[in-house]
Amino acid sequence: MYQTIAGKTLADLAFRAAEAYGDRPAARFQSTPDQWDEISYRELAERVTEFGAGLIDLGLEVGDRVAVLGTTRPDWSVAHLAIVAAGAVHVSVYPTNSADECAWVVGNSEARAIICEDAAQVAKIAAVRDRLPALEWVVILDGEAEGAITASEIRRRGRELDAEELRRRAAAVAPSDPYVFMYTSGTTGPPKGCVLSHGNYRAIMEANTALDARDNPDPETDMVAYLFLPLAHAFALLFQLLTFDRGGVIAYWGGDTTRIVPEVMATRPTHLPSVPRVFEKIYTLAVGSKPADERERMLAAAAVGVRVRDLQARGEPVPAELQQPFDAAEAALFQGVRALFGGNLKLATTGAAPIAKEILEFFYGCGVPVMEGFGMTETSTGATVNTVLNHRFGTVGRPVPGLEARVDEDGELLLRGGNIFQGYYKMEDASFGAVEDGWLRTGDLASIDEDGYVSIIGRKKDIIVTSGGKNLTPANLENDLKRSPWISQAVMHGDRRPYPVVLVTLDPETVLPWAQAQGLPDSIAELSRHPEMVGMVQQAVDAANAKLATPERVKKFVIADRDLAQETGELTPTLKIKRKVVGENFRAHFDALYEEG
């Protein structure tokens, strides 16, 4: 059986974990680029106690909101667990947010305190402090900053206060009490503050435990979760809670996005929660740069792997005609692909955006189970998921235990269960996010097959309606284009236009080395206009168009002179595309495609 030690709320999770797991490692992090250090469960609880008691001594009351503005790191986890142990409510702020975005979240939540990672984050708050009348305290984790209380001072206060008050508060928290205000990353409009209760997150944790016990009867004894996603996001927070609940260890990333794959290889995780862009990059690393004939052989070998692993998962015998090529591919291909993930991965989970079916099949065939799921901040992360035993690639899986799913007459996916949120703080939305008779309107168009597998067709707000009245779903074409080793992002455009077009961006990690080898310009801006690069993108567009009906095919494309980025507002912190912002930032590019006739 899977061990679970969490109580009815998350307020005392750190203390329960310390009692259950003692000196087992809870966190692994880089103190230097070459040095990984660890914190035990006992040490984690001690740090939580000091910090939580220090906040109480500062004047924090039960029910107060406390924001955290920092990257994924052990100190974030300590601050989070301390806040909820003190009976307060955690407010997540993405570390990439601008000062104005921070002002919206901190102001809308009426946070009394904010915990900032460093002086740069404190500066954001200082710039908008006059717009935050409820904010009383700013705490800094690293170093010092004017107007901020140091973390060492908070810990000193905590050591001098009787920790019994912290324990008493943690024990008094009820499942119905607010746990976190989790602000949606906002592909349209200002972020909405989802109020998620302790009971909501406990429901999704229990669903995951039930799912694992059902589909994976042999629990992992040495769970290692590599975590690079922002802990301000519901998906990362869930994995943190599940890991601590089960006595695993979180390997925290070092802060450099270019080092994610090397760090995965170094930490050898058993679990990897991620977003499609990371798996797409690893797929390109494994397959994309190979000659066409070699690439076809690799994909054929992976297809054999899929058939064999499905038989093995069901406990069925593998015919000799499959076992022989499988064994050959194990040595020639599969081991190398698994090594890209550290060689110890038991389960990777992808969500937040669509991913190509072919990528999932390739990794699964190689022995890297990347399982796609679907969820929202409003569902405390999880709603549907594929598992190793029960999967149907191309779908987002079946509803997790305890959750109901149906599709209404308009094709919108509706969900009902204990993990559905409590509403938006000081904000209502009459359509997406509304809860009617317990059913959450997801804003996604979907279908559910006879076996209960859910397929997401697209966001209702993302559907493109051409001037001729044709409804188009961008995801299929965009996903196909992103399978090209040369393409980083693809955004279809065509709402109220005569036909669809697409903007693509180049992937510098593959394009620049190729250009250097060919003696071509070494800048993305120049390569975006180079005839040879344009020709290769044209081939990718032609291949993607060939899979679509004639009205769905893009007539033209343009290559941007840079990639999409969070800094320019085109991507959310979980790398989802903000279509409206892309449309505004690249308006001239799109207009030119239609002006050309």
From TrEMBL:
Entry keyword annotation includes Transcription regulation: no
Keywords annotated in UniProt: Fatty acid metabolism, Ligase, Lipid metabolism
Recorded superkingdom: Bacteria
Keyword Cell cycle annotated: no
InterPro entries: AMP-binding_CS (IPR020845), AMP-dep_synth/lig_dom (IPR000873), ANL_N_sf (IPR042099)
GO molecular function, one term: long-chain fatty acid-CoA ligase activity
Domain AMP-dependent synthetase/ligase: 16-425
GO cellular component: membrane
Entry-linked Pfam families: AMP-binding, AMP-binding_C_3
Family affiliation: Belongs to the ATP-dependent AMP-binding enzyme family.
PANTHER family: AMP-DEPENDENT SYNTHETASE_LIGASE DOMAIN-CONTAINING PROTEIN, LONG-CHAIN-FATTY-ACID--COA LIGASE
Protein's name in the database: Acyl-CoA synthetase
